Amino acid sequence: MKHYPLDLAQLIQEKDFDGIVALAISKAPLILAALLIVVVGFIISNLIGKLVVKGMQAKGVDPSIHSFIKTIITLILKFVFILSALSTLNVNINSFVTALGAAGVTAGIGLQSSISQLASGIQILANHPFKSGDYIDVGTVSGKVHEIKMMYTVLITVDNKRVIIPNSYITSSNIINYNAENRRRLDLVFSVSYDADIAKAKQVIQEVISKNDLIFTDPAPIIAVKEHAASSVNLACLIWCSADEYWNVFYYMQEAVKLSFDENSISIPYGQLDVHIVKE
User: Fold this and answer.
1) For helices 66-88 and 28-59, what crossing angle results, to 10°?
2) How far apart (Å, rounded) are the C-alpha atoms in residues 165 and 152?
3) Which of 56, 92, 164, 235 could form a disulfide with 61 if both were Cys (CB 3.0 to 4.6 A apart)?
4) pLDDT at residue 254, rounded to an integer
5) Which residues contact 64 (CB under 8 A, 6 or more apart)?
């Protein structure tokens, strides 16, 4: 009777399929036990992943990274259970790990882009430049952060489009986070005619500001002449509000100032061209 080595890695390396079959038959009970370890281990890994997410929710951890952390923990635990199953089969784990490492190096060469995405995801997780719900600009893309995945980050645009951005693109781009600070300043410009009463126009704008409780009084609003344009006098209006109320205040000011100007007969000029006809 032919004797087969108990080293599965050696049998695979030698492409001895008869030896693999003979080894499998002789170790059937251990194989069943190993399969049980893998199945139960995978179930436990998924359960622990869900418990980790619940723990992060209880601690108030940013929801956008829940999936990322859960995936990493689950994969590590599954790998541990696989190694435990191989140990049950008396497989030479060192040989297995060596073979896996060699395969990993080969695969890594072809998966450089994916590895870069994963490394960038870890970098985002570590540096935490934004959190779930923040409105950000990344390169030419803008949107609210929805979720951070291992390979990419999901943004939702203001018109409800889902944008998927590779993590490596995010870490190599300038990031503007509009919600990083609690307060934001609105820089508004309102144009009035050269014939308008500047002092009255400024008073009207101040009255509009005072009617909205979302606008902060500290720092105090600034209303001043910004420039003498070709067809108008432009008034700068600098006001502060909560970052979450930025757009509500912005749209309020645009509409309320126009209505107040109309009520007070303050004209808003438009571009015009004066043509002088010279008779010879």
Assistant:
1) 160
2) 5
3) 56
4) 95
5) 131, 132, 133, 145, 146, 147, 148, 153
Burial class (CB in 10 A: 0-12, 13-18, 19+), 217: exposed
Measured distance CA(198)–CA(87) in Å, rounded: 85
Q: Does domain 8-119 have CATH number 1.10.287.1260?
A: yes
CA 67 to centroid of chain Cα atoms: 12
Topology of domain 130-177, per CATH? SH3 type barrels. (2.30.30)
Task: Give 222's strand partners.
Answer: 238
Angle, vertex CA 27, rays to CA 21 and CA 29, nearest 5: 130
> How confident is the model over 208-235, as pLDDT tens digits?
999 999 999 999 999 999 999 888 999 9
Mapped onto helix, strand or coil, the DSSP state of residue 156 is strand
Rounded Cα gap, residues 257 and 235, in angstroms: 12
Hey, which bits of 130-221 come out as E strands?
135-138, 141-148, 152-156, 162-166, 175-177, 183-192
Asked if residue 92 has pLDDT above 90, the reply is no
Looking at per-residue pLDDT, the higher value among 88 and 47 belongs to 47
Q: Which fold has domain 183-263?
A: Alpha-Beta Plaits (3.30.70)
Q: Where along the chain do its domains lie?
A: 8-119, 130-177, 183-263
